[in-house]
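Appendix B, Record 12. Input sequence as logged:
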Amino acid sequence: MNFEIPTEITNFLAEVDLFIEKKIKPLEQIDDNIRFFDHRREDARTDWEREGLPNEEWELLLRKTKDLAIEAGIFSYPFPEEYGGRNGSNLGMAIIREHLAGKGLGLHNDLQNEHSVVGNNIGLLLMLKYGTDAQKDQWLDGMKTASQGFAFGITEPEHGSDATHMETSATRDGDHWIINGEKTWNTGVHIADADMVMARTSGKPGDALGITAFLVPMKTPGLKVEEYLWTFNMPSDHARVSFTDVRVPSSSIFGGEGKGLMVIQHFFNENRIRQAASSLGAAQYCINESVKYANERKPFGKPLSTNQAIQFPLVDLNTRCEMLRALIHKTAWLMDTDGAFSVSDKVSMCNYQANRLCCEAADFAMQVHGGMGYSRYKPFEHIYRHHRRYRITEGADEIQIRRAAGYLFGFMDQKKPKGVGV
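Logged structural output:
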């Protein structure tokens, strides 16, 4: 087996690093833009008078960064070549996401809102696979420049992680559908052109089939943003959205009638492996910074690093990073080889393990750095607060474990995935 990172990915990382040094770091340092990343970051980013949403200056800076990355041909790495991309792989995206998160906080990569100089535009990839010709004509040009996009309306207030028990419904009315219901944690609707709304069109609660995805323009009558939910890590763009007699044409169906859950599972699998890689990168950053500080700090006349109470936890965390890195790379490679649904068990393993690891690494980094580690003058509290949400969103830890168990014990209806040893 060859564990070397493919040359084309290594070369791309070097290209990205050079781009960050030449274009992004100078932008980060001018006009007091550093306020978005230093101890003032939460206040600088948040419009406290507008329901805690990201403020205009912050989002304009992210837009400027994205434009520079698009111009440099960096942003579109995962897109097909015909859409200005480089036919990037899942393995490539996992390695890139870890690499960028491993650099710490900065304008190059900020996971709070999925901002990155290398785009994580899974919506475009879904559009290419599941969109109709008319939908592709409407969306693809805007999506490849990140000037157009849709949010995902999946989670419901009363059902949380249980995506198959869905009270939001859509009933046919001639060549149209009438949608009624409510979604929560509907991220990014304040800048979205449409909301991809999951609604039950047939079947009964618990059925996998019968859920349909609808692309609903945000200005559609009956669609209302009820509130934006304040969170552990601000700003927040997570909304509760209601749908009252929302009328959309049949042409708004995305991925086929009754097949919406398949679209979402595809989205989850690709996004979860990238999310896991980001959490791994952030965890490694916390470990590296802690080792560096432990070698420099000399309480009682000797470096902190001479104490086994510091050494042993950091060795354990670093060992877990090494093991998880191997699993993430293997899983991403298998996704490229056999498809997004071929390694659902391993995607779940990677996701919950990486998110737990990042929280533990950030917590211990705070401990190693003492009072300053707890303060906002160091990035660890921000990393903890941000990555803590990943242990809940897109499937809580317990849901991920339950999913892996379903394959391990043969409870799942799908084909037993590769690599299960019993």
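Residues 416-422 have pLDDT under 50 and may be disordered.
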